[in-house]
Amino acid sequence: MSAVVINGLAVTYKRPGRGLRQETFKAVDDVSFTIEPGRTLGLAGESGSGKSSVARALMRVVEPSGGSVLIGGQEVTKLRGGDLRKFRRHMQMVFQDPYDSLNPRLTAGDNIAEALTAAGVSRPDHTSRTRELLDRVGLPAAFARRYPHQISGGQRQRVSIARALAVGPQVLVCDEAVSALDVSVRAQILNLLKDLQDADGLAYLFISHDMSTLRFMADDIAIMRGGRIVEHGPSADVFARPEHPYTRELIAAIPEPGAGRRRRRTAEEVR
Ligand SMILES: Nc1ncnc2c1ncn2[C@@H]1O[C@H](COP(=O)(O)OP(=O)(O)OP(=O)(O)O)[C@@H](O)[C@H]1O
């Protein structure tokens, strides 16, 4: 069974219009995709194209205004109250800024323990489970006692991932999860995410504006523009034969290895 099936998804926001009137604005329009367990869909597109709104609808942080979202075969858009809270365990999110998922006033261990409580793990098991989770993300057990500000950005992101894994999700949404990290740390976190995916069969929705990150991570790619998907297909095909001019522009913007930042291919060369 597919981990994620999104069909005709729409997200509409209200925003101030003229005078006291409110306008409705469609940030996501008729978006459909599927993610199989153990696979990654890379979602790219310019700022404001609706990528995060898709993620927020998937997580049910915003209410979709249309379409359906199936997670493990369950229609998420119809869940309410306790059912929705229970179901949230199946989906977790890792953000660009780890402080969006970590409480700065709690140690790394307590941040993870909070998620363990939500997952129904009993208190006596917290220490051993926390140690296990830290180990899975490549951190020593002693990190449990450190506060988020006492560790590096990459280590903080590892703690965020451990916290996300604590509830045993099927789907991980990574929203620009490595964008703020140095290139070498970024590669380590991407490799960690791949290892965890191989071990647990996690489905990833991997949002990034960086096409070289997506080339490394994604099995399939969807390109968004103005709230719609303008290109969608297996990653190898999209990179080898991009069909939409906008995709060609995004690929052309990837710096060539060894060419430094100055030499960029033109959209013509990508074609
Ligand atoms: N809560 C909100 N209320 C009103 N408009 C919103 C809200 N959240 C997002 N938008 C608008 O919806 C559109 C899509 O935003 P979204 O954050 O989904 O795009 P994005 O592709 O993730 O952008 P970025 O790469 O900058 O994060 C933008 O025009 C944004 O201004």
TrEMBL record:
Domain of life: Bacteria
InterPro entries listed in its UniProt record: AAA+_ATPase, ABC_transp_ATP-bind, ABC_transporter-like_ATP-bd, ABC_transporter-like_CS, Oligopep_ABC_C, P-loop_NTPase
GO MF annotation, one: ATP binding
Pfam families given in the database record: ABC_tran (PF00005), oligo_HPY (PF08352)
Domain ABC transporter: 6-251
Keywords, ordered alphabetically: ATP-binding, Nucleotide-binding, Transport
Gene3D superfamilies, sorted: P-loop containing nucleotide triphosphate hydrolases
Record has ATP-binding as a keyword: yes
PANTHER family in alphabetical order: D,D-DIPEPTIDE TRANSPORT ATP-BINDING PROTEIN DDPF-RELATED (PTHR43776:SF7), TRANSPORT ATP-BINDING PROTEIN (PTHR43776)
Family membership: Belongs to the ABC transporter superfamily.
Record protein name field: ATP-binding cassette domain-containing protein
